[in-house]
Amino acid sequence: MFAREALTYTTLPLPDRVDLTDEEMRTAASEFYDVMRKRHTVRDYTDQPVPRDIIERCIKTAGTAPSGANHQPWHFVAVANPALKQRIREEAEEEERRFYEGGAGDEWIKALEPIGTNAVKEHLTIAPWLIIVFAQRWGQFEDGTRYKNYYVPESVNIATGFLLAALHHAGLSTLTHTPNPMRFLNEALGRPASEKPTMIIAVGHPAPDATVPQVAKMKKPMDQIATILE
Predict the structure, then answer these.
(1) Which of 74, 121, 141, 178 has the most CB atoms within 10 Å of its CB?
(2) Whole-angstrom Cα distance, residue 227 to residue 230?
(3) In this structure, how many other beta carbons lie within 10 angstroms of the beta carbon of residue 110?
(4) What is the Cα–Cα distance from 58 to 43, expressed in whole angstroms?
């Protein structure tokens, strides 16, 4: 994508300009809130297939996110292969067992109790897709010379948020999973040393008997998440 000869500053008129009235903006903001407040982290899935092109379109949406110096320091690996999903589950559960058997402090384990999580991660093999998010710590020009990426965690986090919103908007449920460490994913998925796995996202349709922890519906009120200074 990047070539040395293309690293110059040029401009073009703002494309895709959106001009809404105040009332239209209120309506749009409210409608989007109504969509996103129905997003839930789901641990119980069916194996109902999800077409590949839907996953690709949602990843394409993630790729529109802003990033430091526009380097777009992310890579998404979408996995539907059953053998690969099984390998990922086995290695993730191994890390999770260490976590629950003492790797995490008592305070952290206590904080997780209302969520009801444990070391068993059935969703990693039942959900039809896993999307693994990688952060690219550096990139390469076409001649193989390295260049530094900037604001990598911030950029990848924004793109991941775009991805979760896109998947939800497409009618799919998700679960974010972050076993620690996750370097096994580089080997399993053939990703280079320049990339750091940051998250596994299970994607699919919720099971008929799917549940969510009651505490998950307890959201902080506006005055606790925002300060408005006019």
Answers:
(1) 74
(2) 10
(3) 10
(4) 20
Could you report how far apart the first and last alpha carbons of the chain are, in Å? Answer: 42
Asked whether 169 and 35 are in contact (CB, 8 A), the reply is: yes
**Cβ-proximal residues to 54 (8 Å cutoff; 6+ apart), any chain:** 170, 172
Tokens of 87: 């390998």
DSSP label of 15: P
Is 84 inside a domain boundary? Answer: yes
How many domains does the structure of the chain reveal? 1
Predicted confidence (pLDDT) per residue in 111-130, tens digit = 888 888 898 999 999 999 99
CA distance linking residue 39 with residue 165, whole number of Å: 8
CA 228/CA 230 separation, integer angstroms = 6
The per-residue pLDDT for range 85-108, each reduced to its tens digit, is: 999 999 999 999 988 887 778 888
Report yes or no: 50 and 172 within 8 Å, Cβ to Cβ.
Answer: yes
CATH of the domain at 198: 3.40.109.10
Segment (H or E) for 73: none
Q: Could you give the C-alpha distances from 134 to 3, 5, 40, 65, 99, in angstroms and in order?
A: 22, 27, 23, 15, 22
Is the residue at 109 inside a domain? yes
Residue in this structure with the two tokens 């950029």, named with its chain if needed: 155
Which residues, other chains included, contact 117 with Cβ-Cβ below 8 Å and sequence gap of 6+?
none
| DSSP letter (8 states) at residue 151 | S
CB atoms within 10 A of CB 215: 10
